[in-house]
Amino acid sequence: MIFSNLQIITVVFNHSSYLEKYFQSFLNVYKTIPCPIHIIDNNSQDNSYQVLQKWHSRFPQKIFLQQSLKNTGFSKANNQLVAKSQSKFILFLNPDISFSNDFISPCLQKLSEKNICLSPSFKDPQTKQKYNNFDSFYDNFFYIFNKVFNKFFTKRKLHLVDWIQAACLFLSRESFQLIDGFNEEFFVYTEDMYLAKKLNENNIFSYIDPTIEVFHPNRQISNEQFLSICKNLQIYNKEFSIKPYLGYLYLLQFFKKKQPQSLKIWKQVQNEKHSSN
After folding, report:
1. CATH architecture for segment(s) 6-215
2. Cα separation of 84 and 56, whole Å?
Protein backbone atom coordinates (compact mmCIF):
# COMPACT_ATOMS: atom_id res chain seq x y z
CA MET A 1 0.00 0.00 0.00
CA ILE A 2 1.47 3.34 -1.12
CA PHE A 3 0.22 6.83 -0.28
CA SER A 4 1.37 9.13 -3.07
CA ASN A 5 -0.35 12.25 -1.68
CA LEU A 6 1.14 12.04 1.84
CA GLN A 7 4.49 12.72 3.46
CA ILE A 8 5.28 12.10 7.11
CA ILE A 9 7.11 14.62 9.30
CA THR A 10 8.96 13.32 12.38
CA VAL A 11 11.16 15.20 14.84
CA VAL A 12 13.43 13.07 17.02
CA PHE A 13 15.07 14.05 20.30
CA ASN A 14 16.40 11.29 22.56
CA HIS A 15 13.90 8.74 21.24
CA SER A 16 16.25 5.82 20.64
CA SER A 17 14.17 3.43 22.75
CA TYR A 18 11.10 4.05 20.57
CA LEU A 19 12.49 4.17 17.05
CA GLU A 20 12.62 0.45 16.29
CA LYS A 21 8.96 0.05 17.18
CA TYR A 22 8.06 3.20 15.23
CA PHE A 23 9.57 1.93 11.98
CA GLN A 24 8.60 -1.69 12.55
CA SER A 25 4.96 -0.64 12.85
CA PHE A 26 5.03 0.45 9.20
CA LEU A 27 6.51 -2.85 8.09
CA ASN A 28 4.07 -4.89 10.14
CA VAL A 29 1.01 -3.07 8.82
CA TYR A 30 2.02 -1.91 5.32
CA LYS A 31 4.88 -4.36 4.55
CA THR A 32 6.99 -1.36 3.58
CA ILE A 33 7.48 2.34 4.26
CA PRO A 34 4.30 3.48 2.47
CA CYS A 35 5.26 7.11 1.83
CA PRO A 36 8.24 9.43 2.28
CA ILE A 37 9.25 10.14 5.87
CA HIS A 38 11.14 13.39 6.44
CA ILE A 39 12.89 13.02 9.76
CA ILE A 40 15.33 15.14 11.71
CA ASP A 41 17.42 14.29 14.73
CA ASN A 42 17.31 17.43 16.88
CA ASN A 43 20.75 16.97 18.48
CA SER A 44 19.85 13.89 20.51
CA GLN A 45 22.18 12.96 23.35
CA ASP A 46 21.48 9.23 23.05
CA ASN A 47 22.06 6.97 20.03
CA SER A 48 18.91 8.06 18.17
CA TYR A 49 20.87 9.29 15.15
CA GLN A 50 22.69 5.97 14.79
CA VAL A 51 19.37 4.11 14.81
CA LEU A 52 17.99 6.54 12.23
CA GLN A 53 21.04 6.03 10.01
CA LYS A 54 20.45 2.30 10.05
CA TRP A 55 16.85 2.68 8.90
CA HIS A 56 17.80 5.33 6.35
CA SER A 57 20.35 2.97 4.79
CA ARG A 58 17.66 0.30 4.59
CA PHE A 59 15.09 2.59 2.92
CA PRO A 60 17.10 5.43 1.32
CA GLN A 61 14.33 6.28 -1.16
CA LYS A 62 11.69 6.62 1.54
CA ILE A 63 13.44 7.89 4.67
CA PHE A 64 14.97 11.35 4.26
CA LEU A 65 17.24 12.00 7.21
CA GLN A 66 18.95 15.11 8.46
CA GLN A 67 20.78 15.98 11.65
CA SER A 68 20.73 19.25 13.54
CA LEU A 69 23.82 20.23 15.51
CA LYS A 70 21.62 21.90 18.11
CA ASN A 71 18.12 21.37 19.43
CA THR A 72 16.12 23.99 17.52
CA GLY A 73 12.83 23.04 19.16
CA PHE A 74 9.82 21.05 18.02
CA SER A 75 8.09 23.86 16.11
CA LYS A 76 11.08 25.06 14.11
CA ALA A 77 12.23 21.54 13.26
CA ASN A 78 8.77 20.62 11.95
CA ASN A 79 8.63 23.77 9.84
CA GLN A 80 12.03 22.98 8.34
CA LEU A 81 10.93 19.49 7.38
CA VAL A 82 7.63 20.63 5.87
CA ALA A 83 9.57 23.09 3.70
CA LYS A 84 11.45 20.13 2.19
CA SER A 85 8.32 18.08 1.51
CA GLN A 86 5.96 18.43 -1.45
CA SER A 87 2.87 16.33 -0.78
CA LYS A 88 -0.75 17.48 -0.71
CA PHE A 89 -1.22 16.14 2.83
CA ILE A 90 1.10 16.08 5.84
CA LEU A 91 1.17 13.75 8.82
CA PHE A 92 3.03 15.03 11.87
CA LEU A 93 4.01 11.82 13.63
CA ASN A 94 6.02 11.58 16.84
CA PRO A 95 8.66 8.83 17.04
CA ASP A 96 7.03 7.37 20.17
CA ILE A 97 3.91 6.51 18.16
CA SER A 98 3.31 2.87 17.23
CA PHE A 99 0.33 1.14 15.65
CA SER A 100 -1.02 -2.28 14.72
CA ASN A 101 -3.63 -1.37 12.09
CA ASP A 102 -3.88 0.84 9.03
CA PHE A 103 -4.72 4.26 10.45
CA ILE A 104 -3.48 6.27 7.47
CA SER A 105 -6.04 5.20 4.85
CA PRO A 106 -9.20 6.16 6.77
CA CYS A 107 -7.67 9.45 7.90
CA LEU A 108 -6.62 10.39 4.36
CA GLN A 109 -10.09 9.50 3.13
CA LYS A 110 -11.63 11.96 5.58
CA LEU A 111 -9.10 14.66 4.69
CA SER A 112 -9.90 14.26 1.00
CA GLU A 113 -13.59 14.81 1.76
CA LYS A 114 -13.23 17.87 3.97
CA ASN A 115 -10.49 20.39 4.76
CA ILE A 116 -9.93 19.64 8.45
CA CYS A 117 -7.21 18.96 11.01
CA LEU A 118 -7.52 15.32 12.08
CA SER A 119 -6.15 12.81 14.56
CA PRO A 120 -6.96 9.23 15.51
CA SER A 121 -7.54 8.44 19.17
CA PHE A 122 -4.66 7.53 21.49
CA LYS A 123 -4.18 4.42 23.57
CA ASP A 124 -1.40 3.95 26.10
CA PRO A 125 0.79 1.01 24.98
CA GLN A 126 1.31 -0.22 28.55
CA THR A 127 -2.17 0.01 30.05
CA LYS A 128 -4.04 -0.35 26.73
CA GLN A 129 -6.36 2.37 28.00
CA LYS A 130 -7.58 5.19 25.79
CA TYR A 131 -6.92 8.74 26.89
CA ASN A 132 -7.87 12.13 25.50
CA ASN A 133 -5.33 13.52 23.05
CA PHE A 134 -7.38 16.70 22.67
CA ASP A 135 -8.62 19.58 24.79
CA SER A 136 -10.71 22.74 24.72
CA PHE A 137 -9.30 26.22 24.40
CA TYR A 138 -9.13 27.51 27.95
CA ASP A 139 -10.78 30.76 26.86
CA ASN A 140 -13.75 28.70 25.67
CA PHE A 141 -16.78 29.62 27.79
CA PHE A 142 -17.63 25.92 28.07
CA TYR A 143 -14.12 24.80 29.05
CA ILE A 144 -15.03 23.18 32.38
CA PHE A 145 -18.15 21.58 30.93
CA ASN A 146 -16.16 20.15 28.03
CA LYS A 147 -13.50 18.75 30.38
CA VAL A 148 -16.11 16.90 32.44
CA PHE A 149 -18.08 15.73 29.42
CA ASN A 150 -15.02 14.37 27.61
CA LYS A 151 -13.86 12.54 30.73
CA PHE A 152 -17.07 10.60 31.31
CA PHE A 153 -18.62 10.29 27.87
CA THR A 154 -16.78 8.49 25.08
CA LYS A 155 -17.95 9.38 21.62
CA ARG A 156 -18.04 6.68 18.99
CA LYS A 157 -17.74 8.67 15.79
CA LEU A 158 -15.81 11.53 14.24
CA HIS A 159 -16.36 14.61 16.37
CA LEU A 160 -15.29 18.22 16.57
CA VAL A 161 -12.84 19.35 19.27
CA ASP A 162 -11.00 22.61 19.91
CA TRP A 163 -7.45 21.30 19.48
CA ILE A 164 -5.54 18.05 19.20
CA GLN A 165 -2.03 16.96 20.11
CA ALA A 166 0.52 17.21 17.31
CA ALA A 167 1.90 13.76 18.15
CA CYS A 168 -0.24 12.33 15.33
CA LEU A 169 -1.87 15.05 13.29
CA PHE A 170 -3.08 15.07 9.68
CA LEU A 171 -3.38 18.36 7.81
CA SER A 172 -3.27 19.61 4.25
CA ARG A 173 -0.12 21.43 3.17
CA GLU A 174 -2.25 24.34 1.98
CA SER A 175 -3.80 24.77 5.43
CA PHE A 176 -0.43 24.55 7.18
CA GLN A 177 1.10 27.15 4.88
CA LEU A 178 -1.94 29.41 5.20
CA ILE A 179 -1.09 30.05 8.86
CA ASP A 180 2.71 30.03 8.30
CA GLY A 181 3.17 26.72 10.10
CA PHE A 182 4.00 26.28 13.76
CA ASN A 183 4.83 29.39 15.77
CA GLU A 184 8.57 29.03 16.39
CA GLU A 185 8.34 31.03 19.62
CA PHE A 186 6.99 27.78 21.06
CA PHE A 187 10.09 25.66 21.64
CA VAL A 188 8.02 22.66 22.69
CA TYR A 189 4.52 21.96 24.12
CA THR A 190 1.18 23.71 23.41
CA GLU A 191 2.37 24.67 19.93
CA ASP A 192 -0.49 22.45 18.76
CA MET A 193 -3.03 24.51 20.72
CA TYR A 194 -1.73 27.67 19.06
CA LEU A 195 -1.79 25.96 15.65
CA ALA A 196 -5.44 24.97 16.08
CA LYS A 197 -6.39 28.47 17.20
CA LYS A 198 -4.87 29.94 14.03
CA LEU A 199 -6.58 27.30 11.90
CA ASN A 200 -9.92 28.10 13.55
CA GLU A 201 -9.51 31.73 12.58
CA ASN A 202 -9.42 30.48 8.99
CA ASN A 203 -12.43 28.16 9.41
CA ILE A 204 -10.32 25.00 9.51
CA PHE A 205 -11.38 22.89 12.48
CA SER A 206 -9.98 19.95 14.44
CA TYR A 207 -11.55 16.51 14.65
CA ILE A 208 -10.90 13.25 16.50
CA ASP A 209 -11.94 9.88 15.12
CA PRO A 210 -12.25 7.44 18.06
CA THR A 211 -12.78 4.51 15.69
CA ILE A 212 -9.13 4.81 14.59
CA GLU A 213 -6.39 4.15 17.14
CA VAL A 214 -2.64 4.50 17.54
CA PHE A 215 -0.45 3.86 20.57
CA HIS A 216 1.21 6.72 22.39
CA PRO A 217 2.54 6.81 25.98
CA ASN A 218 0.33 8.68 28.43
CA ARG A 219 2.97 10.38 30.56
CA GLN A 220 2.90 12.74 33.51
CA ILE A 221 4.69 15.96 32.66
CA SER A 222 7.85 16.95 34.51
CA ASN A 223 8.42 20.26 36.27
CA GLU A 224 10.69 21.32 33.41
CA GLN A 225 7.92 20.60 30.91
CA PHE A 226 5.43 22.45 33.06
CA LEU A 227 7.71 25.49 33.06
CA SER A 228 7.81 25.41 29.26
CA ILE A 229 3.99 25.27 29.12
CA CYS A 230 3.69 28.23 31.50
CA LYS A 231 5.99 30.33 29.33
CA ASN A 232 4.14 29.35 26.17
CA LEU A 233 0.82 30.42 27.66
CA GLN A 234 2.21 33.94 28.01
CA ILE A 235 2.75 34.01 24.23
CA TYR A 236 -0.66 32.50 23.59
CA ASN A 237 -2.47 34.98 25.85
CA LYS A 238 -0.75 37.95 24.24
CA GLU A 239 -1.38 36.78 20.67
CA PHE A 240 -5.10 36.20 21.17
CA SER A 241 -5.75 38.93 23.77
CA ILE A 242 -6.79 36.44 26.44
CA LYS A 243 -7.03 37.40 30.10
CA PRO A 244 -4.08 35.72 31.90
CA TYR A 245 -6.26 34.34 34.70
CA LEU A 246 -8.01 32.08 32.17
CA GLY A 247 -4.73 30.21 31.81
CA TYR A 248 -5.32 28.90 35.34
CA LEU A 249 -8.14 26.76 33.96
CA TYR A 250 -5.70 24.94 31.72
CA LEU A 251 -2.94 24.75 34.33
CA LEU A 252 -5.18 23.40 37.09
CA GLN A 253 -4.95 19.91 35.61
CA PHE A 254 -1.22 19.88 36.43
CA PHE A 255 -1.58 20.92 40.08
CA LYS A 256 -1.37 17.40 41.46
CA LYS A 257 0.31 15.79 44.44
CA LYS A 258 2.78 14.13 42.09
CA GLN A 259 3.94 17.57 41.01
CA PRO A 260 4.24 19.64 44.20
CA GLN A 261 6.47 22.20 42.49
CA SER A 262 3.83 23.16 39.90
CA LEU A 263 2.42 26.16 41.76
CA LYS A 264 5.92 27.36 42.61
CA ILE A 265 6.92 27.18 38.94
CA TRP A 266 3.82 29.08 37.82
CA LYS A 267 4.61 31.86 40.32
CA GLN A 268 8.19 31.92 39.04
CA VAL A 269 7.00 32.53 35.47
CA GLN A 270 4.66 35.29 36.64
CA ASN A 271 7.48 36.99 38.56
CA GLU A 272 9.78 36.79 35.53
CA LYS A 273 7.07 38.36 33.39
CA HIS A 274 6.52 41.28 35.79
CA SER A 275 10.25 41.91 36.27
CA SER A 276 10.78 42.13 32.51
CA ASN A 277 7.99 44.70 32.05
Report:
1. Alpha-Beta Complex (3.90)
2. 17
